[in-house]
Amino acid sequence: xxPEAGQRFGPYEILGRLGGGGMGLVxxxxxxRLHREVAIKLLHDDYTMPGMRERFLQEAxxxxxxxxxNICTVFDIGEQDHNPYLxxxxxxxxxxxxxxxxxxxxxxxxxxYAIEISDxxxxxxxxxxVHRDIKPANIFLVTMPNGKxxxxxxxxxxxxxxxxxxxGWESRRLDLTTAGATVGTLSYMSPEQARGESLDIxxxxxxxxxxxxxxxxxxxxxxxxxxxxxxxxxxxxxxEPVRNWNESIPRELEKVILKLLAxxxxxxxxxxxxxxxxxxKVGKKLGRVGWxxxxxxxxxxxxxxxxxxxxxxxxxxxxxxxxxxALLAIEGSGANSGSLVFVSSTRxxxxxxxxxxxxxxxxxxxxxCPSSMS
Length: 374
Prior knowledge:
- This protein folds into three domains: 8-89, Phosphorylase Kinase, domain 1 (2-Layer Sandwich); 93-286, Transferase(Phosphotransferase) domain 1 (Transferase(Phosphotransferase), domain 1), CATH 1.10.510.10; 300-374, no CATH class.
- The chain is built from eight helices and 17 strands.
- It has helices at residues 52-64, 96-101, 107-126, 191-194, 201-217, 227-236, 251-260, 272-286; strands at residues 8-9, 12-21, 24-31, 36-43, 74-80, 83-89, 93-95, 129-130, 139-143, 149-153, 160-161, 163-165, 168-170, 324-329, 339-345, 351-358, 364-370.
- It has a six-stranded antiparallel beta sheet with strand order 1-2-3-4-6-5, with helices on one face. Strands 14-15-16-17 form a four-stranded antiparallel beta sheet, with no helix packed on it.
- Strand 15 (339-345) and strand 16 (351-358) form a beta hairpin.
- Helix 3 packs antiparallel against helix 5 and helix 3 runs antiparallel to helix 8.
- The protein is globular.
């Protein structure tokens, strides 16, 4: 059943269709009780096979158990004419899949989104939930008021809910798949997932490694024209180095991605928190001011001036004589807002020493640059 605009599901009025994916169709709706727009997810008509309704409800249970800014919030669940529906926060932005389609992401964006996704997975894993379908289409980049985007994890329809037991993971209790069944999206599966083995949190981290690889290269690491060829790559071949596709990716970030893609679970990051810590270290090495190094002082410009500074064009002086010029560059009306610049050339005129003194603080710095004085 595809609802039309104006149709009601409980207290929610359908406004229009937003899209679809996985097991359901997503619509924009109006919550008349709280006077806000929401998103409503309905089960596809095609998914009438046994177990699909239970899996749809499992997504609601899994997501509603999680409260984190990087996970899409579930507000409500209901049923109308034997059709279950899921009410979620309405997100404005685009999927990571759409973003990657426009080009590879800069390293600092990859790190920032990876930290947010790993934080979301950490919360889910702490609740005994393994997502099992981490891919760009299930990561939404929400447009924030400051113009940046925030990653949110969507679609827990294939999630496996279990309890931590005896130091390991027992997750068969609420797993709706049969033993040996393969679930997930082929290009983003871990080796153990492709073999139909029991999964733990490290499978999600492998899938996240594939997502980060694609963010950096616009390629998935294990490719093939058929599923059999993809499995051969996944089971038997190491991924091509990230920097073979994109040299702008720092080696430290490449190491993190390749560690996530280790065939053996024990060789990967063992927890989302461990991955988070590694990503923070990479982010700090990037030396970015702002999102990781808040409060860092900006670089002081060599010369602050309203107008370009012109050198004096007088007669050439002798090599034995040292020349000096003092220029005062003032911004605004206050005399203390500028910088005082002293320039002196070396004996052979090949280099000039530039000493910058801040008029307000008296702080000084010494720079060298090729001399252009005549």
